[in-house]
Amino acid sequence: MSPQVALRKAFSAFPTGVVAVCALVDERPVGMAVNSFTSISLDPPLVAVSVARTSSTWPTLATRGRLGMSVLGSEHEVLCRRLSARAVDRFEDAQWHATDDGAVLIDDAALWLECEVRSTFDGGDHEIVLMEVHEAETFPDVTPLVFHQSQFRELHADR
Ligand SMILES: Cc1cc2nc3c(=O)[nH]c(=O)nc-3n(C[C@H](O)[C@H](O)[C@H](O)COP(=O)(O)O)c2cc1C
Prior knowledge:
Bound molecules: flavin mononucleotide
Radius of gyration: 15 Å
Number of strands: 11
CATH superfamily: Electron Transport, Fmn-binding Protein, Chain A
Helix content: 10-25%
CATH topology: Pnp Oxidase, Chain A
Strand order of the largest sheet: 2-1-5-8-9-4-3
Order of helices and strands: HEEEEHEHEEEEEE
Shape: globular
Structural class: mainly beta
């Protein structure tokens, strides 16, 4: 196993949610799935994602004023795969809507954020993108999708 593959496997031991980062481009939705989302600051309200330098979608999203961030629900596994696949219509069968500012939000998500890119930082083969949160809406009854060891899992609230 190459060191990179071994490291990817090691990092996958950390369970995460999955976020769809999406915006309107020429009146059509464009987006990608990321699990590198993290909350950063309450005042000012900031979140961050890290995006691979090889991403063909991010350079387009980066030019948008507002980005929609949707924390995907457990029903969104197929959509999540689609939002990471190449050469497909990523929004086929997706239920989504756009805000007045052009952010695209996925219906039935656990959380919606409307964000604006504030700064970027070197993150090796990724770019770390810091974003300001302008709007937030939570849906506490939606069970989030969980990504762990390269598999989709569900949360079980036993207690
Ligand atoms: C669960 C999951 C999490 C992902 N997380 C990230 C991420 O944090 N950053 C990233 O750049 N790509 C991530 N990807 C890959 C992108 O969704 C996408 O496949 C990749 O950007 C290639 O497509 P593109 O060239 O259109 O950007 C993830 C994919 C999946 C399925």
